[in-house]
Structures
1.
Amino acid sequence: MSTEENKAIMRRFIDAGNRQDMEAIWSYIDPECHLPDMARFGFEPNFEGYKKFLAAFYMALPDAYLHVEGMVAEGDQVWVCYTIRGTHRGPLRGIPATNKPVRYRFMAMYRLANGKIVWADALADDLGLLKQLGALPRDLVRRAV
């Protein structure tokens, strides 16, 4: 597939995520997909682990919205920079609901084959997220600013 076709697939995948249309989301992921980032959240780095992660994510941020800041594709890879916004209404990264609005950056790298995501990894601004949730010790917040 061309880079433009891969980017179009990713746009549809992201749109499905913003609608929380789980059936559509799953349709863009190869069942044998490898997702190394899931391990840092305590989930298996595979399709089933991602399903559990995403269910927990949407429980924590039921109004989550991923705004695409930029997208670059080369070969079978697509890189997406997002801003994630939502309201913290459920447990998130071990932090009970605060009902605070959050906004943080997220960079994801995807590899596609035959129109499906077969590999994905990501980096998020966890420090910024935890700071917004009030989950950092005060002296650390002062030093981080």
2.
Amino acid sequence: MVQYPEQRDDARLNYKSPVKVEDLVSGITLGARMVNYSRTGLCFETNERLQQGAEIYIGIENSPYTSPASRSYECYRAKVIWRRELETVFFKYGYGVRYIFLSDEEVSQSNDLKGRKDLRKYPRQSYSISIRFAAQKRFSEGLTQNISPSGVFIKTNDTPSAGKILTLFIPLKREQQAEIKGRVVWSNQAGCGVKFLRIVKK
């Protein structure tokens, strides 16, 4: 078993889940595997090299911070605290990251996982509506699950692969719609997480 250095005050809990990691500087998204987590951070493994101190977004497909009965996608902004080369056949590097809270008060108020604040820069809001989206002139349909100023989660049976550029057609009031360019940050059988790039027209 790989041993990771203890770099945080909170106890770590072992938990395996696929994750997507996005470097906020380069915009590159890479696949990784989460191996454990705590109240204030987590550890993951990947084949890509990230710089210590880098700020990233982490998308957890089956987040341990949600209830066991309804594991769902969660996205967090974090900072790479340490990096370690691994002696395994699966991944080259192990990383420890700490979530970026809006303030230290949020950390002190979060005494358990259920009391944890939303750690993303842009908190999600539940938003369920049917939308259309297109990738290279191929149109598909889906149902939004939640949305924020930076992106949206779409539940669809026609899941585009990570990295795809989509045009989203989101209905508005008074029979209008927003046309937004977005990039698929992660995808699985349930749907995909899309990061907004720019508004084409409204």
